[in-house]
C-alpha cells in the first residue's frame, strides 16, 4: 500500500506496521532497517519473530514510503525478501528508533539462509596484519559465513547454532550488540580470542606443532593426503599436480575413475586451467561457490595430474569459500584436489570422531577445528549450458533456500524423492524447501541422514506433512520410508507420482510454469505405470497429470542393475533386439564378442530367457549400448561414465545425423535400435569414434524434434520441457534446443534444480500440490 | 493320467502308485484309515505345514518330492523340534505321467526315511488341465521339541553372534539355471537336505543360548534376517566377506545380476547365539556333515533396530532390505 499524507497539513505523523518475510534473519536485516530508519528520521522499532522481521515506524509519509521501497530495493546481500505487508497504526508520537530482541514464541515461518562464501570486507580484515582477525580462519559477518550447516533450531540466533559452545569475548560482544556494526547479530561471530581454533593432527590423532595451515600446506606440497574440515563436511586434499599423491588418494578412497574436484586460489588461477567465459566466471564467484565444470585448456601442462579427471574434456573447479580455504590456497598457491572426505559409496564425513575413524586409513593428516557441523552438506556442482547454469547437484550455498512457486500448497507436503542422488522436498504455502543432496539411500549412513534430515527440516520450517509423496518403485528405500510414514500417521495421505512425470514437473516448477507441455524425460531408469522400466519418454504433461505420448522401443536389460555397470550388456541386448538371430558380421560386433568371451553368449541367452532381464525404454541405456558398441567402454566405474565419455569425445563440428524410425500408434514408438545399427555400420566402415559419437547425438536430437512435431500435430502444444539425467549432457541439450527452436517450439530446461534425480522430489511435491488445488 | 470322476481313481493312485513308492517311510503294513494316530512323548509338540510348487520338478540335488520333506522337516527343526510324522497331500494335473508321479513318490519316501520321519497320512486329488501346474505337494509335519530348545524369532538380542551353517545360493541358482538351460546346473546342485541333526547338535552345545533359528528359503538370507530383525527389534550386521558363496553361484549371480543374499536355499540355517556359547555351537555345527562349512557371518546390534545392514569389504554399510517383488534395478 502507499502511505497517503494526512488530509490536514501540519506536524501530524503517520505510523505503520510492516512485516517482512523471506530470508531476513541472520543476514543483517534488522541493522539495515535501523540504519535506514535513523537516516530517514523515523521513530519506532524493528524486531524478529517466528515469521520474519516486524517493523513499526512513525514519521512523515514520504519518509515512510522511502523506507518501504528500500526494504526490498536495498536489502543486504544475503537477504531474500519475499513479501512486505504494510498496515496502518495509530501514531504514538515516538521519535527514537530501536532494535528489539528476538521473539522466540509464535509460529515459525522464517527462512534459514544457505552457507555463504567469505565476503570481501572479511577478507580484507584477514589480510590486515593490524586487524584482530588477521589470518583468522573463522572470520565471518552478517553478509557471509556458515548458516544452514550450523543451525540446530529456530529462531536463528546463537543459542540455536553450534556456535553456542563459544562465549563471546568483550570486543566480539560489542560488535554483536552494535546495530551499526556489520557483525550486529551475526550469530557465528567470533575472533581468535573467543572462537574456534584450528589444529593439525597426524594420521594417528596426535597434534602437530606450529601453524596448522602452514603445516598442512607443507604436507600437501610433500605429497601427503590431508583431511580438511570444511563448512558442510570433510574434504580430502592433495596437490593436484602430484600424480603419485592423486593415485594414492584414489586407491585409498576406492574411487577408480570418477573425476576429482579442484580448488584454485582465484579466477585467474582457474583461467590457467580452464576456459572461463563470462558465464563461467560469474558462477565461480557466486556467493554459493559451487564446483563449476569447465572445459580444460589444452596447454594445462603439469598443473593437473592425469589421474585427476581421466578421459575428461572438463575439470570441476571451485574457488575458496571459507576463510580457512583462503588461508590454505595462499599457503599452497598451486591447485588442490578437494574431494569429499569419504570412502567410495559412503556419504561425506562431518562428525569429528566419525571422520577420524573413517578417514584414518585414507588421510596422512587432519586439519580440523572445534566448530561442530550440524548438517552434512556436500559441495554443489554446476555445468554451463548456453551461457547459464545447468545444476548437477544443488546443495551447499543453495539449500535450504526455498524455491518460491507461483502456486501455493493447499496442505503441507513431504516428497520423499528417489533412491539415488536423493533429495527430499517439503512444500508449504508457496515454498518448496528442496533439501541438500542426501545421496544414495542404499548406504546405511545415508539413509539415516535422510531420516534425520527430514525431521530437521520439518522442524526448521514448521512443516507438518499431510500428504507424503513417493515414487512408483516399490523397492526405493524412500518409497518404503513414505509407506512407513503413512502407517505411523493416520492423517497422512500417501500420494504416488510416476518418476518421469516428476522429472517434467520439476522442470515446470523450476521454470515457474504449470504446463501443459510436451515433456521429454530421458534418464537411466524409473518405474513406469505399466510395470516396465521407463527412461526414454515423451509425456504430454501438466503439473497434475500426464499421458505417455511416445517412448523408445523397449529392450531387455540383461542382469538388471548389472547392465548399468556393464554397458556392453546393453550393446548385446540391442544387437539381439535389432537383428534377432542374424547378427551382422561387422568389426564392432566381433570386437565386443572377443572382449567379453563366453559371457557374451550367456548374457544374450539370459536376456532371451527373460532371466532378470526387465524391459526398459531407457534413453540412458540406449547411450550405453551405442557407446559400448562404438568401443568407448564396456564397463563403468561410476554411474553414466560411458555416456559422459561419449559426449566428451563427440566432434562438435560434425553435422551428420543418424535416423530412427518412429512407429505410429498411441503411444508412438521410437526405434532407438536404428541409431545403434547406424553406429555399427559407421564403426564397421572405419568412421572415427568422435564422428560416430556426434552423429549419434545429432540423430537423437533430431528424433526428439521429430517426435515433438508429431505430438504438436495432435495436441497443438508448442512448449517442450527437457528433463531427466540424460539432459546433463550439454551437447544433447544444445542440439535439442537448437532443433526445437528452429521448429518453432519454446524450450524449458533446468536452471535452478538438477535435471537428474536430484530434482525428483521437487517434481513430486509440485504434482501433489497441483492435484490438491484441483480438489 | 486321467481326471478321476470320483474318489476311485485317486484311491487307486494312492494304493498302486504312491504308497508302494513311499517305501518303509509310509509303514506299508499298516491298514489304511481315515486319519492317523501318532504317539508322541509328553512334550511340546511342534507343527508346521507348507506347499511346494517348483519348476522344474526335477533338478540336480533333488526334486519336488524330497523338497516337500526337507522343507517341512526344516521348518519344524527351526523351532528346535525333532520331526516325527508327516502328512502328504498331492494335487496332480490331468495328463501328468504316472512314471513321474512314482518317481516323485519314491524320492519323497526316501527323503522321509533318511530323515527318520514317517508319512502317516495323506491325500491325492487329480484336477483338470490348467487347474494346477503338473504337480503340487503339501506336507504337514509334527515334531517334538528338544527339552533345552527355546529358539524364537523374537529372541534375537544385541550382541548375539550370527552363524550360518553352510554355503548359500545353491538351490536358487540350480533352479534358475535348470529352468533356463544356462549351464550352471552342471556345476551346482540344490543344497536341499534335512537340518534337524544340525539343530540337535547346536542345541546340545548351546541350550537356550541358541536364541533364534531360521532357514533362509524363499527370499534368501536377506528375507530371513529381516524377518528376525523385525520380530525381535534387534539390528543385524552381516560381514559380506565372511559369506560362503560357492564359485559357480558367484559366477551365476554375476551373470544374472542377482544379489546372492536374495537367492533361495533349502539346506542351510541361520542361528543367533548368545556370544558366550557361540564358539561351542559353531564347533558342534561343524561336527555335523550337513553343516561342516558353518561360519560366523555377523552379529545382532542395538543400533538401527529392525534394520539389517551388510558391511562391504571396504567398510561401507549397505542396507539389506526385504524385496517387495523381484530384484528390479533401482538405479536411475
Ligand atoms: Fe530419473
Ligand atoms: Mg517353509
Ligand atoms: Zn563477511
Ligand atoms: Zn571474540
TrEMBL record, chain A:
Residue span, Acylphosphatase-like domain: 15-101
Pathway(s) where this gene product acts: Protein modification; [NiFe] hydrogenase maturation
Keywords: Hydrolase, Ligase, Metal-binding, Zinc, Zinc-finger
Spans through the membrane: none
Positions of the YrdC-like domain: 210-397
PROSITE patterns documented for this protein: ACYLPHOSPHATASE_3 (PS51160), YRDC (PS51163)
Pfam families assigned: Acylphosphatase, HypF_C, HypF_C_2, Sua5_yciO_yrdC, zf-HYPF
Family: Belongs to the carbamoyltransferase HypF family.
The protein's name: Carbamoyltransferase
Amino acid at each position: 500500500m502507499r502511505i497517503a499524507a494526512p488530509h490536514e497539513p501540519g506536524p501530524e505523523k503517520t505510523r505503520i506496521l510492516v512485516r517482512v518475510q523471506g530470508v531476513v534473519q541472520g543476514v543483517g536485516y534488522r541493522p539495515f532497517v535501523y540504519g535506514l530508519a535513523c537516516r530517514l528520521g523515523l521513530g519506532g522499532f524493528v524486531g524478529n519473530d517466528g515469521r520474519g522481521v516486524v517493523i513499526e515506524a512513525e514519521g512523515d509519509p514520504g519518509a515512510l514510503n522511502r523506507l518501504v521501497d528500500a526494504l526490498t530495493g536495498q536489502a543486504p546481500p544475503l537477504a531474500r525478501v519475499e513479501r512486505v505487508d504494510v498496515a496502518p497504526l495509530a501514531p504514538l508520537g515516538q521519535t527514537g528508533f530501536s532494535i528489539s530482541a528476538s521473539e522466540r514464541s509464535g509460529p515459525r515461518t522464517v527462512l534459514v539462509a544457505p552457507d555463504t562464501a567469505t565476503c570481501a570486507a572479511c577478507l580484507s580484515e584477514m589480510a590486515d596484519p593490524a586487524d584482530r582477525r588477521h589470518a583468522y580462519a573463522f572470520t565471518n559477518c552478517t553478509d557471509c559465513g556458515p548458516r544452514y550447516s550450523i543451525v540446530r533450531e529456530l529462531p536463528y540466533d546463537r543459542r540455536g547454532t553450534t556456535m553456542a559452545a563459544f562465549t563471546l569475548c568483550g570486543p566480539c560482544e560489542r560488535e554483536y550488540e552494535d546495530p551499526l556494526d556489520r557483525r550486529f547479530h551475526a550469530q557465528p561471530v567470533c575472533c581468535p580470542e573467543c572462537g574456534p581454533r584450528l589444529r593439525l593432527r597426524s594420521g594417528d590423532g596426535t597434534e602437530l606443532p606450529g601453524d596448522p595451515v602452514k603445516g598442512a600446506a607443507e604436507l600437501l606440497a610433500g605429497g601427503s593426503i590431508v583431511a580438511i574440515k570444511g563448512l558442510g563436511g570433510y574434504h580430502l586434499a592433495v596437490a593436484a599436480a602430484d600424480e603419485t599423491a592423486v593415485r594414492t588418494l584414489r586407491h585409498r578412497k576406492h574411487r577408480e575413475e570418477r573425476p576429482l574436484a579442484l580448488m584454485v586460489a582465484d579466477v585467474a588461477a582457474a583461467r590457467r586451467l580452464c576456459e572461463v567465459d563470462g558465464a563461467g566466471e560469474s558462477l565461480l564467484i557466486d556467493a554459493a561457490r559451487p564446483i563449476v565444470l569447465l572445459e580444460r585448456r589444452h596447454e594445462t601442462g603439469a598443473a593437473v595430474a592425469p589421474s585427476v579427471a581421466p578421459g575428461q574434456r572438463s575439470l570441476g573447479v571451485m574457488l575458496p569459500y571459507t576463510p580457512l580455504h583462503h588461508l590454505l590456497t595462499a599457503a599452497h598457491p598451486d591447485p588442490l584436489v578437494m574431494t569429499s572426505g569419504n570412502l567410495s559409496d559412503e556419504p561425506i564425513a562431518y562428525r569429528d570422531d566419525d571422520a577420524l575413524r573413517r578417514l584414518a586409513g585414507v588421510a596422512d593428516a587432519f586439519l580440523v577445528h572445534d566448530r561442530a557441523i550440524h548438517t552434512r552438506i556436500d559441495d554443489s556442482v554446476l555445468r554451463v549450458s548456453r551461457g547459464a547454469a545447468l545444476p548437477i547437484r544443488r546443495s551447499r550455498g543453495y539449500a535450504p533456500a526455498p524455491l518460491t512457486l507461483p502456486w501455493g500448497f493447499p496442505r503441507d507436503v513431504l516428497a520423499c524423492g528417489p533412491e539415488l542422488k536423493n533429495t527430499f522436498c517439503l512444500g508449504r504455502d508457496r515454498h518448496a524447501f528442496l533439501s541438500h543432496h542426501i545421496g544414495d539411500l542404499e548406504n546405511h549412513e545415508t539413509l539415516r541422514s535422510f531420516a534425520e534430515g527430514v525431521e530437521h527440516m520439518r522442524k526448521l520450517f514448521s512443516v507438518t506433512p499431510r500428504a507424503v509423496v513417493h515414487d512408483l518403485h516399490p523397492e526405493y528405500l524412500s518409497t518404503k520410508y513414505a509407506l512407513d510414514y503413512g502407517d505411523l500417521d493416520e492423517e497422512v495421505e500417501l500420494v504416488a507420482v510416476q518418476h518421469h512425470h516428476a522429472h517434467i514437473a520439476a522442470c515446470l516448477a523450476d521454470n515457474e510454469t504449470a504446463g501443459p507441455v510436451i515433456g521429454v524425460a530421458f534418464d537411466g531408469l524409473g518405474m513406469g505405470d505399466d510395470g516396465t522400466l521407463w527412461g526414454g519418454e515423451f509425456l504430454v504433461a501438466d503439473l497434475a497429470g500426464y499421458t505417455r505420448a511416445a517412448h523408445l522401443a523397449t529392450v531387455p536389460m540383461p542382469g538388471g542393475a548389472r547392465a548399468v555397470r556393464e554397458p556392453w550388456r546393453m550393446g548385446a541386448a540391442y544387437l539381439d533386439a535389432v537383428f534377432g538371430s542374424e547378427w551382422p558380421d561387422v568389426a564392432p560386433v566381433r570386437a565386443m564378442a572377443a572382449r567379453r568371451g563366453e559371457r557374451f553368449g550367456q548374457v544374450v541367452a539370459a536376456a532371451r530367457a527373460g532371466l532378470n532381464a526387465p524391459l526398459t525404454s531407457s534413453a540412458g541405456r540406449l547411450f550405453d549400448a551405442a557407446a559400448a558398441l562404438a568401443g568407448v567402454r564396456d564397463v563403468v566405474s561410476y554411474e553414466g561414465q560411458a555416456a559422459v565419455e561419449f559426449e566428451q569425445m563427440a566432434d562438435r563440428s560434425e553435422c551428420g545425423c543418424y535416423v530412427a524410425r518412429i512407429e505410429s500408434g498411441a503411444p508412438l514408438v521410437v526405434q532407438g535400435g536404428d541409431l545403434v545399427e547406424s553406429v555399427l555400420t559407421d564403426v564397421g566402415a572405419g568412421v572415427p569414434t568422435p564422428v560416430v559419437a556426434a552423429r549419434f547425438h545429432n540423430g537423437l536430437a533430431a528424433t526428439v524434434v521429430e517426435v515433438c512435431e508429431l505430438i504438436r500435430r495432435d495436441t497443438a502444444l508448442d512448449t517442450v520441457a527437457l528433463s531427466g539425467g540424460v539432459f546433463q549432457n550439454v551437447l544433447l541439450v544444445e542440439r535439442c534446443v537448437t532443433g526445437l527452436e528452429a521448429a518453432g517450439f519454446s524450450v524449458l530446461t533446468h536452471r535452478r534444480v538438477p535435471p537428474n534425480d536430484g530434482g525428483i522430489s521437487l517434481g513430486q511435491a509440485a504434482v501433489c500440490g497441483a492435484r490438491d488445488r484441483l480438489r | 493320467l486321467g481326471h478321476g470322476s470320483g474318489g476311485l481313481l485317486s484311491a487307486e493312485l494312492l494304493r498302486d502308485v504312491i504308497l508302494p513308492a513311499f517305501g518303509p517311510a509310509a509303514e506299508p503294513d499298516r491298514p489304511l484309515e481315515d486319519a492317523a494316530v501318532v504317539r508322541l512323548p509328553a512334550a511340546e509338540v511342534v507343527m508346521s505345514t507348507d506347499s511346494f510348487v517348483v519348476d522344474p520338478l526335477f533338478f540336480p540335488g533333488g526334486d519336488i518330492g524330497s523338497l516337500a520333506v526337507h522343507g517341512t522337516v526344516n521348518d519344524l527343526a527351526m523351532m528346535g523340534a525333532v520331526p516325527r510324522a508327516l502328512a502328504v497331500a498331492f494335487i496332480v494335473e490331468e495328463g501328468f505321467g504316472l512314471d513321474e508321479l512314482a518317481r516323485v513318490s519314491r524320492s519323497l519316501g526316501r527323503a522321509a526315511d533318511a530323515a527318520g520321519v514317517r508319512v502317516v497320512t495323506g491325500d491325492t486329488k487329480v484336477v483338470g488341465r490348467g487347474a494346477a501346474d503338473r504337480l503340487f505337494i503339501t506336507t504337514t509335519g509334527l515334531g517334538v521339541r528338544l527339552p533345552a530348545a527355546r529358539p524364537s524369532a523374537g529372541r534375537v538380542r544385541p550382541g548375539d553372534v550370527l552363524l550360518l551353517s553352510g554355503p548359500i545360493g545353491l538351490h536358487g541358482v540350480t533352479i534358475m539355471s535348470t529352468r533356463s538351460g544356462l549351464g550352471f546346473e552342471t556345476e551346482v546342485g540344490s543344497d536341499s537336505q534335512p537340518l534337524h541333526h544340525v539343530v540337535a547338535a547346536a542345541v546340545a552345545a548351546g541350550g537356550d543360548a541358541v536364541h533364534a533359528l531360521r532357514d533362509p528359503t524363499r527370499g534368501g538370507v536377506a528375507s530371513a534376517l529381516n524377518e528376525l530383525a523385525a520380530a525381535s527389534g534387534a539390528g543385524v550386521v552381516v560381514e559380506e566377506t565372511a559369506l560362503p558363496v560357492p564359485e559357480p553361484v558367484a559366477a551365476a549371480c554375476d551373470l544374472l545380476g542377482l544379489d546372492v543374499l536374495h537367492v533361495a536355499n533349502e539346506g542351510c540355517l541361520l542361528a543367533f547365539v548368545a556370544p558366550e556359547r557361540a564358539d561351542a555351537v559353531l564347533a558342534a555345527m561343524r561336527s555335523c556333515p550337513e553343516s561342516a562349512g558353518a561360519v560366523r557371518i555377523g552379529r545382532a546390534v542395538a543400533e538401527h533396530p529392525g534394520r539389517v545392514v551388510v558391511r562391504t569389504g571396504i567398510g561401507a554399510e549397505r542396507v539389506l532390505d526385504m524385496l517387495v517383488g523381484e530384484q528390479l534395478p533401482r538405479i536411475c
